[in-house]
Amino acid sequence: MQVKRLFGNTTATWIIISIIVVGIIGINLSIALNTVNQLSSVQNSLDKTSNIIVRLESLHLSVVVAESGQRGYLLTEYEEYLNPYHAELQNLDEKIALVKDIDSEVAGQTERIAEMLVLVDAKINELTSTVDLALEEREKTALRQIMTNRGRDLYREIRKSMQHLIDNEYRHRQELYAQLKQIQRDAKVNFGVSAITSGLLVIGMFLMARINLTISNRYQDDLEEQNELLQEKVTLRTQELTVYSEELSRSNRELEDFAFVASHDLQEPLRKIQAFSDRLTTIYKDKLDERGVDYIKRMTSAAFRMSTLINDLLEFSRITTRGKDFVEVELDSVLNEVLGDLEIAISESGAQIDIEPLPKVCADPSQMYQLFLNVLSNGLKFRKADVPPKITITVEDKTLHDELQHIDVPSCIITIKDNGIGFEQTYADKIFSPFQRLHGRTAYKGTGIGLAVCRRIVERHGGTISALSAPNEGAQFTVSLPIDAVVNKYMGE
């Protein structure tokens, strides 16, 4: 079960394969590098030993040639024998220096070479002294010196010492040759093992790839089967949603028709009530006492409020159903139109309105007009006594994250702040619900549906609206609207 689970995890399987491949390659590489280093080391030792043998033999040969020239001259007095003698003497210093620099790998060779060089120096002194005597025409003295056999004994010692040194180097070279052959044999074995492991590795990788391919195909078949089941569920759910959407559309149409008919049927009796109230007031004014006139005024006021409420409700219900297509809207133009319509209220209240330049957005122009009209009207309505209203409108560009669509949306944040009477922050969400009033009808007129309309407009545009306030410290409304036409178009639909 564990093996199946391991092979079923393709990533884990290939990680294991990669580790094994890298490990084997590393081991083979290490073995190969070690073999190469050993071969290189042995080869260097062989070259070094051969060079030592050549230097020793060259020095030996020079001593022999110099002695031959010396003896030939002393025996024949022919100066031709001095030519090789002088030539070798000139080369001896260089060859002796080369021998002194020898760093042999054979134990004790350095000490033996030093002893041999002492003999060579003595031999050179013996050669030069006899030749010098002969050149001074003291041949008999020179011959007597030769007849002492001191030169012959020195040469024998030199030859013996030289032969011992060279034999040691030859033996060391034979050992190196044997070591080289052993390394070659080991290298063949190592390379053979590497070839076998590499072959097994290739076979193992092929088998594991085959297993993974089989498992992958099985998973692919399972995935396709699950996709088919999911597609069937999606198709079924889509059909259900289509039916639900059609039912919702029909329900919205019926609701809109009902709202229109209800508003028409309700408005007609109200108009008659208002008309007959006006007639009673006009015709029977003198026949009614003060209480009767008051009753008629109350009836007329109630009918007017009822008519206003019906119109507001109808307007609230039509925000989505009868909203216009989104187009590019200059909010500055919309706000100027709102300020024009509120000119009388602004003038009577002595209001000061400061506005920053607003951007263009893709929106429903009529609903943008309604949004600003409702918010600014509130700022003018809910003002402090004997304090002129001051309303400030600022804007900020900001990118907000849409949790529904999981995208970042470029937006404009519009802040509308006033210095009015304000309200408790606990009512900040309540004021956006229909028919929610924080004050009595006698203090401030209205149906309590204006801010609910604002919230519905903003939500239709894919934005948000919130309020921040405190009693007697004014209110601040923050509206975020997407600038992106694609987002707004989607939200509008």
Tell me what the structure shows.
- The protein has 493 residues and is an alpha+beta fold.
- 71% of the residues lie in helices and 10% in strands.
- It is built from twelve helices and seven strands.
- It has helices at 2-8, 10-76, 82-100, 109-135, 139-147, 150-283, 290-321, 331-341, 343-349, 365-381, 450-460, 485-492, and strands at residues 327-330, 352-355, 360-363, 390-402, 407-418, 464-469, 475-482.
- The strands form two sheets. The protein has a five-stranded mixed beta sheet with strand order 2-4-5-7-6. Strands 1-3 form a two-stranded antiparallel sheet.
- The chain is rod-shaped.
- The two termini are 53 Å apart.
- Residues 1-8 and 485-493 have low confidence and may be disordered.
- It catalyses: ATP + protein L-histidine = ADP + protein N-phospho-L-histidine.
- It comes from Paraglaciecola agarilytica NO2.
- This is histidine kinase.
